Amino acid sequence: MPTVAPLDLDGHVLSAAFLGDVPFFAASSGEIHRLDHGHKVTVAHDGLLAAVRDEANDTLVTGGEDGRVLRISGDGTVAELAQVPRKWISVVAAGPQGAVAFAEGRTSRVRLADGTIREFPETRTVEGIAFAPKGLRIGVSRYNGVSMHWVAMAAAPVDLEWKGAHNAVTFSPDGRFVVTSMQENALHGWKLDTKPGAETRHMRMTGYPAKVKSLSWSVKGKWLASSGAPAAIVWPFSSKDGPMGKPPLELGTRADVMVTAVACHPAEDVVAIGYSDGMVLAARFADSREVLLRRPGKGAITSIAWSRNGRLAAFASEAGDCGVIDIAG
């Protein structure tokens, strides 16, 4: 039976992550909490808006209401990567070769490992940024689609157009697909590996009763798990045309609650599912088998993160009741 080590914090906690084997919890207050031989706190921002784990450097990259972009190391050390005075940094992404992307308003920026910052103006407000898995390339989600920029080249962006507001953006691990979550309770996807001159293939993934705020690719990229429904909606991406014409899996269905966070296991075809009532469970893709990881709590789950070996799962909550689950008990 899984066991839960609770961590009760004050206020909304935005994100959970593991740096090495140490669980981190990024609170909207700007405090970064970690459980490293005791509960330790680093004050990073005057108001935190975004936090992502940088897998390449095993650090946390954060953006805040103070206009700062920071890198938090496993020992809690803070390094400032950039500052945009009088602006809120609500979008951050970590990429290969030490690159970090961030945005405010209609400008997205990429900071390279040597400190060089490249700017990419957009015609609309930037809602999300993701790095492609191959090559130093970013996808920027905005109103009416995604702008694709090569960071090291002075070339015009490739625009992937689809009417509507596109919020978060993600690349499939093999780089063949780009998927966005939309304001209208749907996902939209583009197939990138079409032949030159061929028409872009679109993918519409609809039927959600709420906005999709959490996306997670399975370890081999064959599945994309999503929130926004009373179950985790998991789309198949193993075929050359992705989910087109194929129904999704619906895992961990519960009545009267919504899935608010998903996180695929680092080694198995299993997804951890967090709900609006604070419950967390794990479900297996092959047979839909479920294991309860945490009973309902005080607030909706905002984030779930697996440790590298997949034995531990950290979760964050909008009410501050966080914790670490030991799967083996």
UniProtKB/TrEMBL annotation:
Source organism, top-level taxon: Bacteria
InterPro entries in the cross-refs: Apc4-like_WD40_dom (IPR024977), Quinoprotein_ADH-like_sf (IPR011047), WD40/YVTN_repeat-like_dom_sf (IPR015943)
Stretches assigned to the Anaphase-promoting complex subunit 4-like WD40 domain: 266-327
Pfam families recorded: ANAPC4_WD40
PANTHER family assigned: TRANSCRIPTION INITIATION FACTOR TFIID, TRANSCRIPTION INITIATION FACTOR TFIID SUBUNIT 5
Listed name of the protein: WD40 repeat domain-containing protein
